Amino acid sequence: MSQKANQMWCLSKRPNQNIDASNFSWQETQLPSTLGDGEVLVRTLYLSLDPTNRLWASDMDQYMPPVRLGDVMRGATLGVVEESNNARIPVDSIVSGMWGWQSYFQGGAGGLSLVDPVPDVPLSAYISILGINGMTAFFGLFDVGQAKASDSVVVSAAAGSVGSLVGQMAKIHGCRVVGIAGSDEKCRWLTEELGFDAAINYKLSGWSAQLSASCPDGVDLYFDNVGGEVTDVVIDQMNSHARIAVCGMISRYNEAEPWSGPKNYGMVLMRSLTIRGFLVSDYFKRFSEGMRIVATWLSEGRLQYSVEIVEGLENAPQAIDRLFLGTNTGKLLVRCSPE
Amino acid sequence: MSQKANQMWCLSKRPNQNIDASNFSWQETQLPSTLGDGEVLVRTLYLSLDPTNRLWASDMDQYMPPVRLGDVMRGATLGVVEESNNARIPVDSIVSGMWGWQSYFQGGAGGLSLVDPVPDVPLSAYISILGINGMTAFFGLFDVGQAKASDSVVVSAAAGSVGSLVGQMAKIHGCRVVGIAGSDEKCRWLTEELGFDAAINYKLSGWSAQLSASCPDGVDLYFDNVGGEVTDVVIDQMNSHARIAVCGMISRYNEAEPWSGPKNYGMVLMRSLTIRGFLVSDYFKRFSEGMRIVATWLSEGRLQYSVEIVEGLENAPQAIDRLFLGTNTGKLLVRCSPE
Q1: Of the four listed, B66, B96, B141, B304, which is most buried by Cβ atoms within 10 Å?
Q2: In this structure, are B191 and B95 located in the same domain?
């Protein structure tokens, strides 16, 4: 095999508030010239940029070890196998994994999952709607949130990669769905393109009254991606025995202080609320079940998803802060090399 | 029938911080001299004093309408039927209800439940371990908290009327049980008399380290009666996928401000925690099931309960603040008239 140059972004400095190019350093190394037994060489096609990357770059107590300073930045990835010493994973296979912000992965295949692409489904789907984002939406809504057809469902960060799917899946299930997003343009997309019953721009004053008008029978299920003040407002409007599926707290990720709970936490008692945090990794073993259902909906044209592609691994550090500024719509991916 | 004088405490002023005699006015009225169709006359035997009374006396948004100023103070009660115009409820029946802080109840029987006393079980049990408190502990632990035999269970306000039962029931179930209470004497009672594996006085510095030492494998289930800082400390020590059954937030009831959530609420996400608030009224329909099991444990000598009786309805207002000062042990009852 030919020896490849590997380009990568390493975490050089932990973010203080926002995360941007100043937190990373660009490095180039030569990959080993031979593959060990069972090893593969994978060329990165897509890198996923996700709010949780901000957590991994910090040293706060979190759900997995923080990325160490100097290490390649962690991230979900999709790639094509260029060389293989592993019978399970032949050359030209598509694999997903977490090899991070680098142009190649070379090593053991333990952390790689084989993807079985279907005609007419673009490869980018396997790192968005049929990957982590889709499974987060699916299991968060139906397993964590226990969505029922009669529910009024509210979704925060509703135009995001997870929220936009949650709302559509809830509509398929028969729920009334109200999205909360950060611009009128996003809100229009949710109602006009994705079929949400209503969408509310939380940056406009009076949005709380709008939420109330949009959920005349109160809120039964809240799929929360943001935490903070938006969540306080939704909790005020929750019905007795309502549920919150806590998927993210993006409003907090740039804060150094511990993330305090809702200001109206007493409602947990007064309204017999259930709050359940979850990680998509809790559901890894059930991914095939979720993917089968979501793929069916996708093939039936019942689910739309938006992918925004940033060209070139070199542009990943500038792009990631857009998740926090709210200037992306749908799933944010970096194309690291051509399919 | 003879016309009776009814003595009562009415809510005269909403509590600002503590609740005490200044919030009530003593009144005496004559009951109607005749019973209407289906009506009964009940002499109050026991009045239950509970932390939630403080909520009812306030005008905050809560799980049922606040007591109106001028109305008889609301409270759980047990009494004996002295006159009856209702075939379902003969004279001398024991009934439980919510007729509040008054020496008699006269009226329709819709809100009364017939009690079927068992020999050797004192009547006071039916307004404590076999009443609201016992059922709160039972359904909170097993249904809301989904206690498993392998769980390390932590209970706050562990020497209280609910907490002391939760811990014993969890021991019967096979759990490791650690109580948190507000004095060394209470802690001794929990470990030496009730069989808790450990008990920790949260008023002593360093109690957080003691909790950690008492739960070497982390906390799986937290039965929370208090909220506030104690809860923050417990949450820090919870395992991934641990659960919190939120039964009360007594540390907050005297506060005018909205009750904010845990300072380390981010753990909900980082550890996939489930927080479930509940009201015992959610389980009214299943009371007979719970009472049967708890009565069996009681008759087998596997459950101890402590009842502290204040003599005389006239002393109720002075007694209720003891729940907040923590100077009671076990269930606080007022004996309003002799059995």
Answers
A1: B141
A2: no
Q: How many domains does chain A have?
A: 2
Other C-beta atoms closer than 10 Å to the C-beta of A30 total 9
DSSP at B32? P
Q: DSSP label at A257?
A: S
ipTM value of the model? 0.90
Residues A199 and A164 sit within 8 Å (Cβ to Cβ): no
Amino acid identity, position A106? Q
Q: What is the pTM of this model?
A: 0.91
Residues A59 and A173 grouped into a single domain: no
Is A223 inside any structural domain? yes
pLDDT digits (tens, 9 = 90+) for A112-127: 999 988 888 899 999 9
Both A272 and A142 in one domain: the answer is yes
Query: Counting Cβ atoms within 10 Å, is residue A239 exposed (0-12), middle (13-18) or buried (19+)?
Result: middle
Same domain? For B77 and B139 the reply is no
Q: Are residues B163 and B263 in the same domain?
A: yes
| Domain of residue B99, residue span | 5-128+306-335
Q: Which residues of A touch B (CB under 8 A)?
A: 60-63, 227, 240-241, 246-249, 252, 258-279, 282
> CB A227 to CB B278 under 8 A?
no
Of A252, A266, A267, the CB nearest to B266: A252
DSSP letters, B120-137, are TS-GGGGGTTTSHHHHHH
What are the tens digits of pLDDT across the range A309-332?
999 999 999 999 999 888 887 799
Q: Is residue A149 part of a domain?
A: yes
Q: What is the CATH number of the domain that holds B157?
A: 3.40.50.720
From first CA to last CA, the distance across chain B in angstroms is 21
Task: Find the angle CA(A274)-CA(A147)-CA(B222) to the nearest 5 degrees.
Answer: 20
- Average pLDDT (B254-276) is 93
